Amino acid sequence: MSSPIEMRGKRKSLADAFDNLELTSASSSTPSSSPRKRTMMVQGLHNTISKAWPSQSHRDTENVPMTVRADDIYRQYAYDQDPKKLFEKATNWITAIQTTAPDNAQKGIIANEIEETMVRAIFGSNMIERAGLGWDITVQLCKRIFAGEDIGVVSERDTSYQLALLDLYRQQPGLRDMPSQYILRGRNEIVQHAKAFQYLIHAFVVEKQDITEDLIKTTHKILTKGVPIVEPDMPDVLPEKYGGVYRTVIVGAGTTNFTVPSFIPAQMKQMCDDLTQDIATAEKQNTIDPFSIASKYSLEFVSIHPFQDGNGRLCRMILNTILCRYAGIIIPIGEQGEERTEYMGIKKRASQDMEGHGEYATFVLQRAVTRLREMKKKLAGKHTKHTKGKAANKTDN
């Protein structure tokens, strides 16, 4: 994401985009490629939910919930917002979830809610970047991956790629009028997005790893596997050349110029060190504002813009991974056009005005309240049906 819009040229002139790609087998060295490993990740999340939710601190044996306390950074940017009241609602619902001793059925509800909102977050994030495909295909691919099924990237070099295309046509008939390279690219973007998201959540939420440069680079490498950078009148950049590799070219969006390449390593190290220290301090004091800290470092990451592509999707994965651990939720962003416009406006103002993450934190808090309310309803047996705009596609924003 070129804070807030990823460079759009990459989605054009896709002829020959996959000439140098090969079908990825289950034996690939990519960390999350093994179905067995992904099945273990699913089980790991279920085990974490069984111990305590939100999982929060490293101190699992103490099982003492952290106190959620607001920072003073929230900024109201719409007339109908009251950050103080929103935060009060959020803390009340987090406390209610924390203090409930869930039975096995309720633990399953929490796990299903996390998985369902991960799918929605992937779809929305892809829509912001004009990546991926439609809703039905996103759901089907993500659920198969989260179930541990062996799904790899597909190219026209694969002898069974036509079967993959027919399956995609069946689910989204409008794809028949699009180039096959474009469709296969969109499919690969969904598959790798799901694997990367699952990998990052497992590392930070289940294993309680710090968010380090190495973890971010590995997640980015998974995200971009099988997806070359394609720009008009420019040579393709293969995934192995930019996946998990800090960029060496200058990039910008509109009037925003991102960090000069030579400064990226130092700024990324500082960001990761600061995040680790902020979390350590919060856990020592047993108080945290998950919405503020998630917004702050998601915004800081995309402002650095360390990679040549994929920064927007990864910044939202970082946001949601922190929220998942400390608030127990995932917030989808970008499912509808109006929300995408609101989100991108906030990111633009943050970049141009240099006024911090206050507006973004309020945006995140508002959506977190909705997710917490829905989770509490489901745990109480009051189900709310999610209606998804299935007509959404890459060209609607």
From TrEMBL:
Residues 211-366 form the Fido domain. Residues 378-397 are annotated as: Disordered. ATP binds at residues 309-316. The active site is at 305. Keywords: ATP-binding, Nucleotide-binding. One of its GO terms (molecular function) is ATP binding. Residues 378-391 have a biased composition (Basic residues). InterPro entries: Fido, Fido-like_dom_sf, Fido_containing. SUPFAM superfamilies: Fic-like (SSF140931). Signal peptide: none annotated. PROSITE patterns: FIDO. It holds the Pfam family Fic. This is Fido domain-containing protein.
